[in-house]
């Protein structure tokens, strides 16, 4: 299963699954697919999710667990271990949320401004997938920045959903989820001192499942459970989980997620009948992210006095910013929540997200490919070998 761990292979599978989902949704099979996505299996344990939500709220939490484990490694031992460098993606993420929101508000009348959160989201899976395919020779720091920025961006998006669109927040479940995070942390520490203990492994899995259930019951987006567990798990069980889950995530979770998320029927609406919401989202995603992330990231490096030798170049920041404009699934979720009472705006918002994300994919992928092609193949080979050695070292440290 070594091949499925390859970033380029997994990214290609993800993008193919997305294309297939979009195509199928716009064929005569579309209504049947939509019915399947809306099918509700028999509820159990207080969980009543549609088939689509089992993918986006359930399986995707596993992806966020793996992504958070990788982010924690970068923050503690990797490219972002220095505090000043770790603050750069956080500040860039804030800029990448604020600028698209301002662009959206500037392009719509006041009565439509409630949709401002839609273009603030970055789709971490698709952004990393495009970078893996088009930017194979780019410095490791570029991927680390994009990963950290996208995870922080998603956390902001989840917070916005909880604050703006959650009508029935369950405080007891949220408090219990906080307590369960502490349990996951404690079990991880115990695992470190008793490495290889199967009872502890089972206990950690059970605690993570309980954490997911509690977050789901709280009304907050359930994928935050994966982020929380990945950030607090001790290195030994975290790396063990990452190594074992990576093939499952790359081969099943992400392709299923991409297929479900992309299976959107493109509305047949004349261009002249589209509301300002369409244009605002289509512009705010690529342009807002480009301006916000680039400016905030550059200013952060200057303000934090990042040594010149460690700074990302303007070209690298632009590459990350363009890829950050791939809003797609999270933006579609925001659109559904913001416009659920107005069918016309929901249709226009969907088109805006698809067009804006496509523009970001084309521009970001092109810039990444051009910059990657300028790097010497021997340097790329050396980086690949170093990455492989690092991965083996992390796996051996389980």
- The CATH level-2 architecture is identified as Up-down Bundle
User: In whole angstroms, how far apart are the ends?
Assistant: 19 Å
Please, how many helices? 15
Order of helices and strands: HHHHHHHHHHHHHHH
Structurally, the number of domains stands at 1
Strand count, sense and closure of the main sheet? none
CATH fold topology: Na+/H+ antiporter like fold
Helix content: over 70%
Query: How would the global form be characterised?
Result: globular
Instruction: Report the portion of residues in β strands.
Output: under 5%
The CATH superfamily bears the name: Na+/H+ antiporter like domain
Keywords: Antiport, Cell membrane, Ion transport, Membrane, Sodium, Sodium transport, Transmembrane, Transmembrane helix, Transport
Transmembrane segments: 49-69, 90-108, 114-133, 145-165, 171-191, 198-214, 220-236, 248-266, 278-300, 312-334, 346-370
Catalytic activity: Na(+)(in) + 2 H(+)(out) = Na(+)(out) + 2 H(+)(in)
Subcellular location: Cell inner membrane; Cell membrane
Written description of the protein model:
This protein has 398 residues and is mostly helical. The protein has one domain: Na+/H+ antiporter like fold. It is built from 15 helices and no strands. The longest helix is centred in the C-terminal third of the chain and has 31 residues. It is globular and about 65 Å long.
């Amino acid at each position: 299963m070594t091949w499925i761990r390859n970033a380029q292979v997994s990214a290609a599978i993800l993008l193919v699954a997305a294309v297939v989902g979009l195509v199928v949704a716009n064929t005569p099979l579309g209504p049947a697919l939509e019915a399947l996505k809306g099918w509700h299996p028999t509820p159990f344990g207080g969980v009543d999710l549609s088939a689509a939500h089992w993918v986006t709220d359930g399986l995707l939490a596993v992806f966020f667990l793996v992504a958070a484990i990788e982010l924690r490694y970068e923050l503690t031992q990797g490219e972002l271990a220095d505090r000043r460098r770790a603050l750069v993606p956080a500040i860039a993420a804030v800029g990448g949320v604020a600028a698209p929101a301002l662009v959206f508000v500037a392009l719509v009348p006041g009565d439509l401004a409630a949709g401002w959160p839609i273009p603030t989201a970055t789709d971490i899976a698709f952004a990393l997938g495009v970078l893996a395919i088009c930017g194979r020779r780019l410095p490791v720091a570029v991927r680390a920045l994009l990963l950290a920025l996208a995870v922080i961006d998603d956390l902001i998006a989840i917070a916005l959903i909880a604050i703006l669109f959650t009508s029935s927040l369950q405080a007891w479940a949220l408090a219990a989820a906080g307590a369960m995070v502490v349990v996951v942390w404690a079990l991880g520490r115990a695992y470190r001192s008793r490495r290889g203990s199967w009872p502890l492994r089972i206990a950690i899995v059970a605690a993570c499942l309980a954490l997911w259930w509690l977050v789901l019951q709280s009304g907050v987006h359930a994928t935050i459970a994966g982020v929380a567990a990945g950030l607090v798990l001790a290195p030994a069980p975290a790396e063990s989980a990452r190594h074992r889950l990576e093939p499952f995530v790359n081969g099943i979770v992400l392709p299923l997620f991409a297929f479900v998320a992309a299976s959107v029927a493109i509305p047949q609406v004349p261009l002249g009948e589209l509301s300002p919401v369409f244009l605002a989202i289509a512009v705010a995603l690529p342009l807002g992210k480009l301006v916000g992330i680039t400016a905030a990231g550059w200013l952060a490096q200057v303000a934090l006095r990042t040594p010149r030798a460690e700074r990302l170049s303007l070209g690298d920041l632009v590459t990350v910013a363009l890829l950050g404009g791939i809003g797609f699934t999270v933006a579609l979720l925001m659109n559904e929540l913001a416009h659920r009472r107005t069918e016309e705006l929901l249709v226009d918002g969907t088109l805006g997200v698809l067009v804006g994300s496509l523009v970001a994919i084309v521009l970001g992928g092109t810039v990444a490919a051009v910059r990657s092609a300028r790097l010497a193949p021997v340097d790329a080979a050396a980086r690949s070998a170093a990455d492989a050695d690092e991965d083996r070292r992390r796996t051996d440290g389980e």
